[in-house]
Amino acid sequence: MIQTQDLLLRPSEELTLSTRGYRLMNKLGEGSYAQVFLAEFTIKDGDDKSTKMLACKVVDVSKAPKDFVKKFLPRELDILVRINHPHIIHIHSIFQRKTKYFIFMRHAENGDLLEFILKKGPISEAQSRVWMRQLALAIQYLHDMEIAHRDLKCENALITNNYNLKLADFGFSRDGQGRKLTSTTYCGSLSYAAPEVLRGMPYHPKIADIWSLGVILYIMVNKAMPFDDTNVKRLHEQQINRRWKFRSKVVDQLSDNIKAVVGHLMEPDITKRWRVDQVVTSDWMAMDSRLTQMTNAEEIALAQAQQEKQSYMDSLNKKHTGLDKKAGQLSEMKVLKTSAADSEKAKKYTSAETVVKV
Ligand SMILES: Nc1ncnc2c1ncn2[C@@H]1O[C@H](COP(=O)(O)OP(=O)(O)OP(=O)(O)O)[C@@H](O)[C@H]1O
């Protein structure tokens, strides 16, 4: 029986994974209801054998609250099988065995952005621009697919061995079809939460994502949080009164353009807060001429977002027709089952192997 620190894998689970070529190794990190492990994937082709390293997020639903199991996990899996973008962590395959889900994905060798900043110090303006653009394009793609991330934070931005940033963790994401969400549905981190979210009023999740993007940019260049979040009321007051400033250590090294961008993103008035497209086309981005044009992969992904959104919405509409309210609650599980059972349809939405029950 493998004991990878906290995770106990039963021999049968180990065997099931190993027959498919996967082996879990040391722990890379953990979140609220999941542990993430380094994993080895071996492909055999006759006598040839090749191995590649992946990360595997293991979610044990027997240890998670009902809300998470019924609501957030199905949403995360549903979203994971639909997305495919150069700046979003690539999902390799997803397996479900009894109470455990194994989400195999690309391994980000340089860990998450928070770890990176804590280890290496504040990120230079030039590097922040590159990473902000990658993050903004990932969010633009999601928003175009009517998906709001809702938990944007440094821990969910992963850094690869080539120093590219990839967005991860769709545990709290949901479609943002103009639906308004109340504070009870907010589960992200306080420090990154927009003022309208803290107020507990209905809010637009896509616009709230942009605030979090501003907090991430602030943290990148300052290696500090913009606000003191020990008291929610005080935090909200600081946010709406724009009571934040760049650290004296970095303020003189930063351009006026980046300072303006942070201000436009951490804008308490949602009617004035920038939309994600404005970050991509900002004067700050244009300071690096390499960043003014989209790569082929970025353009293709964006074009696909619109197409995918349409076919996905059509398929959901079909599925939901005739369902009563009670059945509607179960439909989130059905989406998962459908994508596992109907691999043809699922393939349209994903580059991953999709959810396979083993
Ligand atoms: N692909 C990966 N490569 C390297 N490290 C990773 C990878 N995926 C996750 N991690 C590490 O594991 C941590 C937890 O992962 P993740 O955020 O997906 O878990 P979670 O339970 O969904 O977290 P949360 O409680 O924030 O929702 C990350 O912050 C990161 O440090």
UniProtKB/TrEMBL annotation:
The keyword Iron does not apply. GO terms for molecular function: ATP binding; metal ion binding; tau-protein kinase activity. Its cofactor is Mg(2+). The keyword Metal-binding applies. GO terms for cellular component: cytoplasm. SMART domains: S_TKc (SM00220). Residues 22-285 form the Protein kinase domain. ATP binds at residue 57. Keywords: ATP-binding, Developmental protein, Differentiation, Magnesium, Metal-binding, Nucleotide-binding, Phosphoprotein, Spermatogenesis. InterPro entries: Kinase-like_dom_sf, Prot_kinase_dom, Protein_kinase_ATP_BS. This is Protein kinase domain-containing protein. It comes from Acanthoscelides obtectus (Bean weevil). The lineage of its organism: Eukaryota, Metazoa, Ecdysozoa, Arthropoda, Hexapoda.
